[in-house]
């Protein structure tokens, strides 16, 4: 992996890829990029030289901040409001991207929501909206990207791949999650959607992979880390004894989008401080 600084918030440190710019000339779309992980990923791609479309649903202010951060590091960006679960919105978003940038090289399907409930109290609406945004939204965006990848073909001076898709999954693509059955089902679905797409599309030089974050401090899970008591409980699940920051995910996305990972197909890169390492066995079980 590239030698990227962990602490991108620190003014005297810049990530290595902001100097090397491995994504120069590439066009990226990041969904749900007005906050949290999506925003950090979009800024990292911009630092790495990509032009970035910032998708947001309602948080225009957050989207504008992401656009500014990317422009400040010398790359192009614009914001586009769209609901990823709606086919017409998704098509309009890709059309706006093609009008502005001509094509897409990198899709990061990041939008996601939680609607938690005890299993027998979960409404069909709670089930449906989580599947619609977290799984169907990724399908709709990937479908538009793949159509364009196939139309355009490889441009060797831009990338060895025809296109790259990065699905934002979760450790919950493999860890069951009581009280969050809709969310875990959506991420389990993302895992096999991603792998099946990767198998189908690898011969066309389209690379499809996922990032599986562990616990990252964002608006989606504020209750899990915003008090010292909650954070202590959460740390019991994290061998690295640190709750992750959105900036932990950006470098992983840059690497998966770059030619440095050209031989990586159909894998989930877990960025989780070891959450998948059965932390209950830390003291010998
Ligand atoms: P977040 O709430 O900050 O980000 C979610 C984003 O999705 C927001 O920008 C929101 O506007 C967008 N979104 C929601 N519904 C949308 C819709 N219909 N259309 C378009 N955009 C929509 O939370 P986050 O933690 O940054 O989540 C980003 C992704 O990371 C999600 O897929 C989430 O499941 C995943 N994830 C997060 C964690 C974590 O600990 N924070 C862990 C594992 C996976």
Question: What report would you give on this structure?
Answer:
The structure is a single chain. The chain is of the alpha/beta class and 285 residues long. The protein has a single domain (27-281), classed as NAD(P)-binding Rossmann-like Domain (Rossmann fold, 3-Layer(aba) Sandwich), CATH 3.40.50. The protein has helices spanning 17-20, 36-47, 60-72, 87-101, 124-152, 181-201, 228-235, 250-257; strands at residues 27-30, 51-56, 77-81, 106-109, 163-168, 206-213, 268-271. The chain is globular, with a radius of gyration of 18 Å. The protein starts with 16 loop residues before the first helix and ends in a 14-residue tail after the last strand. The model is unreliable at 1-11 (pLDDT under 50). The structure holds nicotinamide-adenine-dinucleotide. Nicotinamide-adenine-dinucleotide binds next to helix 2 and strand 2.
N-to-C SSE string, H for helix and E for strand: HEHEHEHEHEHEHHE
User: What is the helical fraction, as a range of percent?
Assistant: 25-40%
For the report, how would you describe the main beta sheet? 7 strands, parallel
pLDDT < 50 stretches: 1-11
CATH hierarchy, class: Alpha Beta
Number of strands: 7
- How far from one another are the termini? 33 Å
Spatial strand sequence of the major β-sheet: 3-2-1-4-5-6-7
The CATH homologous superfamily is termed NAD(P)-binding Rossmann-like Domain
Percent strand: 5-15%
Could you tell me the CATH topology label. Rossmann fold
Query: Which second-level CATH architecture applies?
Result: 3-Layer(aba) Sandwich
